[in-house]
Design goal:
five-stranded antiparallel β-sheet, five-stranded mixed β-sheet, 26 strands, globular
């Protein structure tokens, strides 16, 4: 999500990248229709190894589900159900549970694979829960408005209370707009995108030590990584970024960066082809040999169905 654009958005998700997915040999669509209803404004995405796709609606709180073999998604969790009126980041854990960040309700929702509510964990009133990442022992959630990272412990099937874990004063510089979050292999470190205040040069990428709860700034060269959604694969970091375009305000692209061994430096080496305000892509996910992103239309002049997910152009 973009702090200096119309609405804020979140998260990227990736579920299980090891091994050959069950859908590896089937034909897959290049465009998916999330909804043909007006006002949906899709935001977050998750794609499982089996090829199940979940997409959230920032405008209504609905969650849609589909299969990468089929072009159309269907409503899975109805708009407004369980008090979930605005949904941003979404992630699927190893047990198939769905974790959904309720943006303006400051609530983390957890569902079983059949859509049954398992847990609701709330932050303070006024927090804007945006993106999340799940480790073996906890789930970490970014708060875009409060500049805080929230944490809920995971103990077997139990989800603990959502508590402030890293506050603005714990960062070297107070965050402007925290967004995407990913964790490294082994769950030792996390990377968090900060889209800043909208002023040039305020975008940052934070390195978070999950053991001692400390934050430091990643040295970024070759481009920006103050992104919306993030995707981390080994030492390769993908981020959905936006940048000024005199022709129509802003353009959007995915930047690919190579990280050093300890995630202290990142060098942007490639960029996808761009999309404009009418698409306003937010988050991305891996589907085998390609990347997919969500065309939110959050910043479109007149958002209109169909609302779609498409392949990221020119980057895989």
């Amino acid at each position: 999500m973009n702090t200096f654009l119309v609405l804020a958005t979140s998260v990227v998700l990736l579920a299980g990248t090891s091994g050959a997915p069950a859908h590896a040999a089937v034909e897959r669509a290049d465009t998916y229709v999330v909804s043909t209803e007006p006002g949906v404004l899709p935001e977050g995405i998750a794609v499982t190894r089996a090829g199940t796709m979940y997409v959230t609606s920032l405008a209504t709180g609905a969650v849609y589900r589909g299969d990468v073999r089929h072009r159309r998604l269907r409503p899975f969790l109805p708009a407004g159900s369980d008090g979930r009126t605005h949904a941003a980041g979404i992630h699927v854990d190893r047990a198939g549970r769905l974790f959904v960040a309720g943006y303006d309700t400051a609530t983390l929702f957890v569902y079983d694979p059949d859509g049954r509510l398992l847990a609701k964990r709330s932050a303070v009133t006024g927090a804007a829960l945006n993106d999340l990442v799940i480790t073996d022992h906890a789930v970490y959630v970014t708060d875009s408005v409060g500049g805080t990272i929230w944490r809920a412990t995971l103990d077997g099937g139990r989800v603990g209370p959502l508590e402030p874990w890293l506050r603005p004063s714990d960062f070297p510089t107070a965050p402007g707009f925290l967004n995407g979050i990913v964790a490294s292999a082994g769950d030792r470190l996390a990377l968090v995108a900060d889209q800043g205040t909208g002023a040039p040069g305020t975008e940052r990428l934070w390195r978070i030590d999950l053991a001692d709860a400390t934050a430091s700034e990643v040295r970024v060269s070759g481009g920006q990584l103050g992104a919306d959604g993030l995707l981390l694969e080994g030492n390769r970091l993908y981020g959905v970024v936006n940048f000024p375009d005199p022709a129509d305000g802003y353009r959007f692209a995915v930047n690919l960066a190579v990280l050093d061994g300890d995630l202290r430096a990142a060098r942007v080496v490639r960029q996808s082809r761009t999309a404009g305000l009418e698409q306003s892509p937010t988050t991305l996910a891996r589907d085998r040999d390609r990347l997919l992103w969500v065309n939110s239309q959050l910043n479109a002049t007149a958002p209109a169905p169909p609302f779609t997910v498409t392949e990221v152009p020119g980057l895989s």
